[in-house]
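Weekly structure sync, notes
Attendees: PL (lead), two postdocs, one rotation student
Agenda item 3: pending single-chain targets
PL asked that the sequence for the first pending target be pasted directly into the notes so everyone works from the same version. It is reproduced below exactly as submitted, 364 residues in total.
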Amino acid sequence: MKTTELIATITLPKLPKIGCRTARKLIRHFGSATAVFEDINRTNAKPFASLAAIFKRPEVKQLWQAAEKEVALLEQKNISWVAHTDAAFPLALNQCPDAPLVLFGSGQPFPTTTRIISIVGTREPSADGKAFVRQLMATLAPYNPIIVSGFAYGIDIEAQLAALENNLITYGCLGHGILNCYPQKHKKYRMRIEENGGFLTEYWAHDPLRRGHFLQRNRIIAGLAQATIVVESKSKGGALTTAEYALGYERDLFAVPGRPNDHAAQGCLALIKSRKAECITSGEDVARILGWQKQTKIAPQRQLFVALNDKEKHVIKHMSTSPKHIDLIALEAALKVSELSSLLFQLEMKGVVMAQAGKQFKLT
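Predicted structure, written out during the meeting:
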């Protein structure tokens, strides 16, 4: 991405009344973020009439100049970033209509896999809640998922530390710039997490933590994942906003039940009673519902007993017995989605591939 396009991309959602959702719509219409700034006042299209006036405001120039300084800082501090137009941008998150246009990060690039679990919960977990998180990570370890959370006090940090103990990759989603750290008490864990995983944020490098950032950050936690697990939550709390985002993105949602009189269980019980979340009591429940198989097992080789052409063989090289989204298969196999759909149908007819919910496919 050219420097000017990056500047335009990080400026656009910061404009008054724009935000990420509208910014994405504008970019789709005009073709690029730069084109939005260049052409929006030249169009006669009625939907953009009210928005066009925003780009004439004096603060737009100020935001652009601030973005120029931010891009220079990214290079100076060697801060990694990935734009929504890049193949490396997390696929599941990019499917969310209000996803960030650019993610800033530290540590390792986010993996191209669909086996991603977000774990959230109260900042004041019980001893039972902490124990369940450790048990959950140990049980999920053979399935090798990526663990995403918010790096906050309570269930978040318990999940990420338990992931490290079980040699799982974990990513923390931050509610501030990548050069800051909240809570400061957790700074000692950053290097350990960055060795194999890392941190992601939509905020500019020096942006401080603000209360509203937590809620915004929660949509990224939910959007990155195939499923979100709420371990403990009071009747109101940030974990429940993450759960609502997961539901809005049509992702799987799990909740851990607790004692009816326990305040820390009220949020989870409400999710289960309203049938918004699936009740789980172990990692095996998660794997069973998601159709996962342990990666240590040898996948059945049914494709050896049927005749496959070269393109079909090429497709199955990028598949496994774990469900994978069609967009990710297309990306890895370097095929158009339309062509891949036809090939997957042929493979399904031959009994080699099985379609799953949410445009996912796996080997039989």
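Discussion points:
- The mean pLDDT is 91.
- The chain has three domains: 3-76, 116-290, 302-363.
Action: rotation student to compare against the earlier draft before next sync.
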